[in-house]
Amino acid sequence: MPRIAGINIPEQKQIEIALTYIYGIGLSLSRRILAEVGIEGRRRAKDLTPEEISRLKGNIEKKYKIEGGLRREIMMNIKRVKDIGTFRGIRHIKGLPVRGQRTRTNTRTVRGNVRKTVGSGRKPPPSPK
User: With a threshold of 0.85, does the pTM exceed it?
Assistant: First the structure.
């Protein structure tokens, strides 16, 4: 199993798909990296030679922020807007959508499955005995 950037990439998948298992590399970036290195994207990861794997590793680690470094940078950006007290930072603190989505409905992803609605407010009358 080839290991790139501390991640074991799956052997059975095509290399352009297998690279997307690394945090920070999507399909388009994967294709760009493979074009730079000169590897065909349709080949399986298990069919790569050790020399090709080392070229991939070198290219990825030299040119791109991935995995821990990228996660750290994103966390620092979020911390910065929280500390400044911007609108976005306040939304992050409250756990609400940050990018202008509506909140009356459809915020289950950000808030979790919190149901904050109340019924009509009237309790039904007690049934006679």
Answer: no
